[in-house]
Amino acid sequence: MRQLLSGGALCLAVALATGATPFPVAAQASGASASDAVSNVADALSLRVGERTSTATRAALLADTRMQEIVVDDDNYKRPMRMHAIPFADWLTAMMPDAAKAAAQGATATVVATDGYVSHIPLTLLLGHLPRQPQAYLAVAPENAPWPPLKGDAIGPFRLVWRTPPGPARGGVNESHWTYSIGRIEITPSPRERFPVLRPAANTPPGSAIMRGAAVFERACFSCHSLNGAGDAHLGPDLNTPSSPVEYLGERRLAALIRNPQSLRWWPNSRMPAIDRATVSDTELTDLLAYLHHMSGRKAPPPNAK
After folding, report:
1. What is the pTM assigned to this prediction?
2. For the stretch 72-106, what's the b/e string if a residue is b when 16 or more beta carbons lie within 10 angstroms of its beta carbon?
3. Record: fold of 195-295
4. Cα–Cα distance, 156 to 42 (Å, whole number)
5. 245-269, pLDDT tens digit by residue?
6. Are strands 44-49 and 52-57 parallel, antiparallel or unpaired?
7. What is the DSSP letter of 166?
8. Which one in 92, 193, 243, 244 has a CA-CA gap of 20 to 30 Å to 11?
């Protein structure tokens, strides 16, 4: 979940394990990782396959035989929306036959938006296809029917949208999983595998509040913030170095800031949205504070510290 910062031309790079491509490519290149700048090729969708990047046009995606017209309860627009979309599991497994194996090994889809927002979504969640599981879709807006403005700004053309099972839990999917203005997706190890400085102490019990809070941090905070200088996104300040917000705000004020940033400091241009209980429950917020408090004793110097 985020406030919109910018639009612009889009691309999508997916780090995959095989060289197959599901649709005609317009260009190929190599390089680029999750921390690199997003390409600004207009109306293009670039798929990174190993060290290669294949780029397809928006028109090619819309002509894909797997494209469907669906209606979803849109968590960005807060109303039902009709759209063109490809089931994400079908789209990915066509290019990555071992996607299920990668998911079982804890792989994550690092979804990078053109405004710098980065969501880290477990591959197991994105590959769900059973009736009672959330189902992810890659939605594409035609050039002559762009997405409506969101929070007053244009977005698109690529979005990650969901059909979720009924009930308040919605299969574990919330607004933080609905990524718009997508620029790139890479299949990577989990954040704690990629960035060891995010890990709690080795003797932390697996089911503890600290470990649960680490998972909340990765889902709800890591999209905009780094910790110990590690991360893909830097829209907000680092949450541990040189000081943790639990140190300079205290847990009560930090909890208030998370729920409603404007309640603690009036800042009309603040990028941070209010994190509601549908996204982070009260129990999860308590766990998150436990993780941040624990990590305040496990600081690492920022990357450019002298």
Report:
1. 0.79
2. bebbbeeeebebbbbbbbbbbbbbbeebeebbeee
3. Cytochrome Bc1 Complex; Chain D, domain 2 (1.10.760)
4. 11
5. 999 999 999 999 999 998 888 887 7
6. antiparallel
7. S
8. 193
Residue that is written with structure tokens 């497994």 in the block = 93
Task: Tell me the average pLDDT across 101-122.
Answer: 88
Query: Computed from CA positions of residues 18, 182, 240, 229, in that sequence, does the dihedral angle turn out positive or negative?
Result: positive
Residues of the chain with CATH 1.10.760.10: 195-295
pLDDT tens for 87-109 read 999 988 887 888 888 889 889 99
Angle 250-259/282-295 helices, nearest 10 degrees? Answer: 130
Structure tokens at 234: 């830097």
CA 85 to chain centre: 18
In the predicted model, is pLDDT for residue 74 greater than 90?
A: yes
Alpha-carbon distances of 160 from 105, 146, 256, rounded to whole Å: 23, 15, 29
List the structure tokens of 164: 């979720």
Q: Name the strand (E) or helix (H) holding 258.
A: helix 250-259
Task: Give me the helices (H) in 78-207, please.
Answer: 88-95, 99-104, 123-126, 191-194
CB 273 within 8 A of CB 150: no
Residues sharing a CB contact under 8 Å with residue 10, sequence separation 6 or more, in sequence order:
38, 40, 41, 42, 43, 44, 45, 114, 156, 157, 158, 181, 182, 183
Of 177, 164, 198, 53, nearest to 113 (Cα)? 177
